[in-house]
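Hi R.,

Here's the chain you asked about this morning:
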Amino acid sequence: MLALITSRIPGPVIEIADRDPGFLTLVFAVARAARNGAETAFARRCALARAVGGPNPL
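And here is the predicted structure, written out as C-alpha cells:
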C-alpha cells in the first residue's frame, strides 16, 4: 500500500519552515523549562506552607 501511495507522488516533498528540527528543539526546550519552573514553584510553595505550620498541599 505504501508503495502505491509513494508511486503516485509526482516529485519530492518540500518541507515547510516550521518542520525545521531546530524549531522543534526550541519548542521542546521552552516547554521543558516552563514545566520545571512550575514544579520548582510548587515545591517552594509546599516548603513555605510547612514552615508556617499549615497543611501539607501534597
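One quick note: The chain has a mean pLDDT of 76.

Cheers,
M.
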